[in-house]
Design a protein that fits this description.
heterodimer; A: alpha/beta; 8-stranded mixed β-sheet; B: about 600 residues; alpha/beta; Fumarate Reductase Iron-sulfur Protein, Chain B, domain 2; 5-stranded parallel β-sheet; binds flavin-adenine dinucleotide; binds thiamine diphosphate; binds iron/sulfur cluster; binds magnesium ion
Chain lengths: ~350, ~600
């Protein structure tokens, strides 16, 4: 019996700009079911962080409860982490983000964790534009508690035990667009070519970046009557665009036919290059994204890719004009400016 | 690329790097697992079936398997395959009862084996169970060939040699020792159905044209003649200052033997650079550890002899220049020549074949370097009932190659004696069996240990140098043998992919510690090798390519650094991957050992 990941790695593993190999972004061996989509997303996160040359200590992983929320153990073992109670990850993330704006915040949640118990928290994090990546590993069920329908299960979908879901589903992407989210994307765990650049773009976005990633639960929700199974999702995939993420100061090497491509420049100079597959859609126009999403829904497609981005996004820090420094680096003289200043402040309210 | 044909018996064989590199294709990981399980007797028999001399080879093999071992591509050192073989031999129980007996009722065919080295002994071992009457002729007083006359006892104790030579001779071989065969013509006139020539490459290389070579009769010796003379007890002492000319294993055996016969200062002088020395690295290390000095880039210029007495050797100083093709030229550096004093000089500069006893009008054709013309597959000469093998066939190699030749020659001789075509060769025996026992449970120990290679302990140097028959290496004890055995990656436990089961969840690709697996669009091999999960630069290792998958991609596995850890199969939700044990055995002329108990 093994189940211990050997220490040896490929001797010629390439290294990124800061000298790390992909292996340096790995975590403990996963205890999820063999073939779980969540593991693929973990691998996508590892790949994205490796490609972005992120120093692991500059990132914090946050999650709630669920199989999905367990995954932060399985990647980036040299990063910070906080495993919150069920559905409460957004408030932990909001607090952490306010306390220290120098870290990259990566929230990982499930459809149960976000669309049911944590819905109240989820919508406020969007509304406040907390500077974080928020990945929902969406399998349409409560995997950890053995496969009950979740709020993202489609009406009419059948669970493994045979019960049919009578309620319409909550579409987290549609909801986020409605709430004014500044970065909205959807992907599929089985499509790393799309997922990895989306994660990279989301990490470079200043503000709340939602990635709703369909992620089949092989054990409880991969049966033919499910709309979140590998086969169903593959058969109904429809992408807005193929996507390339070009970090700041790197040369753009892919070129697309004019009229079919769009590129969106981010605040830090990075560029998202899109080769559009969907006509009448502009990734920076919220209305066109909503329309495109509805069209797909009517046709029964699972629309993936970058759906909407606001390049002018102002994160929570900008909105609240918070202090630049991490709170734990503030000295007594910063925190206690003295009686005179207090007097001034008090006067301003009189 | 086309989907890989795993039905081709050579595909998975090649993945078992050590076995593939072994000339006799010994099932290495199979016996290593048996050692780990303390089943030494079976481990010995797996070896004996393939290589006939496990105890001897476990001490002396040239070990082509070790540079090939996958472990050496993953960390510093390969598995100590050779010395593990010795663990099996040292700890085995009664084995003779497991060996086939020659039938009382003979098959009516009579064959002659000329030479009693490993090649001939292998032919005898493989043919005796079939009822052949076997006559073996050798000019030495006992069997073993150069294993007896050349390999010094401090590397190979006589008792080990006797034991394994006798297992073969005890199978009813009619051995005629102290018998030099001086005429092939006479032999052909006797009623042998087939003749096997395993007479080795018995002539030592000399420097006949070097000035001074013939100015003295004493104190200049040919290495292999001198080693034989020491082995048989005719030579028991040597001068204080000894020079050994040559950089191969014979030179290493000469210098270490000289130390044991009382030489105070032994220097090996190599004409070319160290990196071109033919001796195995471990033989060089052993010699240096014992106090031998090795000098390089110094070809001898002349023997300095005064009044018929050897004074020493004069050497030129050179440097090696390599052209683009790697061809070497030695050019003088212009530095002054170096004179080195010597009481005795041992010339150890290679070995040649010599067949003065084979008349050239018998239909046995000879080609370059006085080597017979021999078919590389069948070992048949141009005279159909005469076969060659071992060093006699294609020039000096090593024991394991001689054994491999012996097996094939035995098959040919049997086919020939039964009137069948010698090209009608049997296919290898192969067997592929799933190792799955349960969730996370395999019939093999899939855990990959991190241990570095263990060193074999040696006797104290002082003691070793006092007695030329005292074995230097002590061998692994059982606990160390176990730990070394655990370093084996079980490369014979194959990753077998079933395309129709794969749901393309990527789990195997994501978990693989050494990035062996990629799901991607198919392409041409050269271009594919560049865009896999990790670059696949080692083109000697195959890419395992699946049939097309539903998304239009293929699964590609680079076999190069697979740890055979089984994680891909453990992470696969549909058992599209399975770990299956592949046993590959070269078919022998006769069934040797019933291994159904493995
Ligand atoms: C110094 C030295 C050290 C070596 N060390 C190693 C080692 O560590 N490991 C390794 O793998 N290999 C080693 N070798 C090589 C190895 O010994 C040979 O490759 C191997 O023994 C060849 O086997 P063979 O059966 O072809 O013939 P041999 O072993 O050479 O046996 C041939 C036999 O035939 C006899 N013979 C020859 N002509 C006649 C005749 N006309 N009539 C009767 N008998 C005859 C010879 O006397 C000899 O006994 C070493 C060689 C030398 C010289
Ligand atoms: C407060 C609270 N209520 C209920 C539970 C039980 N529970 C554990 S996980 C889970 C649902 C998880 O579903 P999801 O977030 O979709 O994760 P998945 O396992 O599907 O990845 C529930 C209801 C809990 N742990 N805590
Ligand atoms: S690791 Fe074991 S099976 Fe693999 S090549 Fe080395 S000895 Fe052979
Ligand atoms: S056995 Fe599978 S997981 Fe392990 S190294 Fe080989 S391909 Fe990778
Ligand atoms: S784990 Fe199994 S099903 Fe998944 S991609 Fe690999 S072989 Fe296919
Ligand atoms: Mg879920």
């Amino acid at each position: 019996m093994t189940y211990i990941k050997p220490r040896f790695r490929h001797p010629e593993l390439p290294r990124n700009k800061i000298g790390y190999a992909k292996a340096d972004y790995e975590g403990a061996i996963s205890t999820l079911c063999a073939g779980c989509g969540h593991d693929s997303i973990s691998a996508g996160i590892v790949q994205a962080c490796y490609e972005l040359s992120i120093e692991p200590h500059r990132l914090a992983k946050l999650s709630g409860i669920g199989c999905s929320s367990k995954t932060p153990t399985y990647f980036l073992s040299n990063s910070h982490g906080f495993n919150a109670v069920h559905g409460r990850m957004p408030s932990i993330a909001t607090g952490a983000c306010l306390a220290n704006r120098e870290l990259i915040y990566l929230g990982v949640s499930g459809d149960g964790d976000s669309a049911s118990i944590g819905m109240g928290q989820f919508v406020h994090a969007i509304r406040r534009n907390v500077n974080m990546v928020y990945i929902v590993m969406n399998n349409g069920c409560y995997g950890l508690t053995k496969g009950q329908h979740s709020a993202t299960a489609d009406a009419g979908a059948q669970s493994k035990t045979g019960s049919t879901n009578p309620f319409p589903s909550i579409d987290l992407v549609g909801l986020a667009l409605e709430l004014g989210a500044t970065f909205v994307g959807r992907s599929f765990s089985g499509d790393k070519k799309q997922l990895v650049p989306l994660i990279k773009a989301a990490m470079s976005h200043p503000g709340f970046a939602l990635l709703d990633v369909i992620s089949p639960c092989v054990t409880f929700n991969n049966q033919p009557q499910s709309t979140k199974s590998y086969d169903y999702v593959r058969a109904h995939l429809e992408a807005t665009a193929t996507i390339d993420f070009v970090p700041h100061r790197e040369e753009i090497t892919v070129s697309y036919q004019p009229g079919h491509s769009a590129s969106v420049e981010l605040h830090d100079g990075s560029v998202i290059q899109l080769h559009k597959l969907a006509p009448h859609w502009d990734p920076t126009d919220r209305n066109s994204a909503v329309t495109r999403l509805l069209e797909s829904k009517m046709k029964g497609e699972v629309l993936t890719g970058l759906l909407y981005i606001d390049p002018e996004s102002q994160g929570l820090h900008e909105l609240e004009q918070t202090v630049e420094q991490p709170l734990n680096t503030l000295k007594e003289e910063d925190l206690n400016p003295g009686a005179e200043v207090l007097e001034e402040i008090n006067n301003s309210f009189r | 690329m086309k989907p890989t044909n795993i039905k081709d018996p050579e595909y998975f064989h090649k993945v078992v790097d050590c076995q593939y590199a072994c000339p006799a294709h010994t099932p290495v990981p199979e016996y290593i697992r048996l050692i780990a399980a303390e089943r030494y007797t079976e481990a010995y028999m797996v070896n004996w079936e393939s290589n006939v001399f496990p105890g001897i080879l476990g001490r002396t093999c040239d070990r082509p398997c070790e540079p090939a071992c996958r472990r050496g591509r993953i960390e510093e050192e390969p598995v100590a395959i050779c010395r593990l073989k010795r663990v099996a031999a040292d700890n085995k129980g009664e084995v003779q009862r497991l060996m086939p007996a020659a039938p009382k009722q003979k098959n009516g065919k009579k064959i002659a084996l000329i030479g009693g080295g490993p090649a001939s002994l292998t032919v005898a071992r493989d043919l005796a169970p079939l009822g052949y009457e076997i006559h073996l002729y050798d000019d030495q007083k006992a069997g073993g060939g150069m294993m007896r006359s050349q390999i010094p006892a401090f590397r190979l104790p006589e008792s080990v040699l006797d034991e394994e030579v006798n297992y073969v001779l005890d199978m009813g071989v009619d051995a005629h020792f102290n018998t030099y065969v001086s005429s092939m013509k006479d032999l052909l006139e006797k009623d042998y159905d087939a003749i096997f020539v395993g007479t080795g490459a018995p002539r030592g290389g000399d420097l006949p044209k070097l000035p001074g070579r013939w100015d003295t009769k004493e104190n200049i010796h040919l290495g292999i003649e001198w080693l034989a003379s020491v082995a048989f007890g005719h030579t028991t002492r040597i001068g204080k200052k000894v020079l050994v000319l040559g950089g191969g294993n014979t030179a290493m055996d000469c210098c270490r033997t000289a130390l044991r016969l009382g030489a105070g200062q032994v220097t090996v002088v190599v004409r070319s650079p160290f990196r071109d020395m033919k001796a195995s690295p471990w033989e060089i290390e052993d010699a240096q550890r014992e106090g031998v000095t090795i000098l390089n880039n110094m070809p001898p210029k002349k023997f300095v002899v005064e009044n018929g007495k050897l004074k020493g050797v004069l050497f030129e100083k050179v440097a090696a220049i390599y052209d683009e093709k790697g061809k070497r030229t030695l050019i003088p550096t212009g530095e002054p020549d170096v004179f080195m004093e010597a009481d005795d000089v041992l010339v150890a500069i290679g070995q040649d074949n010599a067949f003065p006893w084979i008349e050239r009008d018998l239909g046995i054709k000879f080609g370059n370097w006085d080597l017979p013309v021999v078919d590389k597959t069948t070992f048949q000469s141009t005279l159909d009932r005469v076969f060659f093998g071992g060093d006699a066939a294609f020039g000096p190699k090593n024991i394991i190659t001689a054994v491999a030749h012996g097996h094939q020659a035995a098959i040919s001789i049997d086919l020939f004696c039964r009137g069948e075509s010698v090209y009608n060769r049997p296919a290898p025996m192969t067997n592929l069996v799933s190792q799955k026992m349960g969730i996370h449970e395999w019939a093999y120990d899939s855990l990959v240990v991190n241990d570095a290679r263990y060193l074999v302990p040696h006797v104290e140097k002082q003691l070793a140098l006092q007695d030329r028959t005292l074995e230097v290496e002590l061998g692994f004890d059982q606990p160390t043998g176990f730990k070394e055995a655990q370093r084996c990656l079980n490369c014979d436990i194959q990753t077998v992919f079933n395309t129709s089961r794969c749901i393309e969840c990527d789990a195997c690709m994501d978990i693989c510690p050494t990035s062996c697996i990629t799901f991607t669009l198919n392409g041409e091999e050269d271009e594919l090798r560049q865009r896999l999960s990790a670059p696949a630069h080692n083109t000697s290792q195959d890419l395992y390519v699946s049939e097309g998958l539903p998304t239009g991609r293929v699964m590609i596995k680079d076999e190069d650094v697979c740890l055979h850890c089984g994680l891909c199969a453990e992470r696969c939700p549909t058992a599209a991957w399975d770990m299956q044990k592949y046993l590959y055995q070269v078919t022998k002329a006769a069934p040797i050992w019933n291994n159904s108990m493995l």
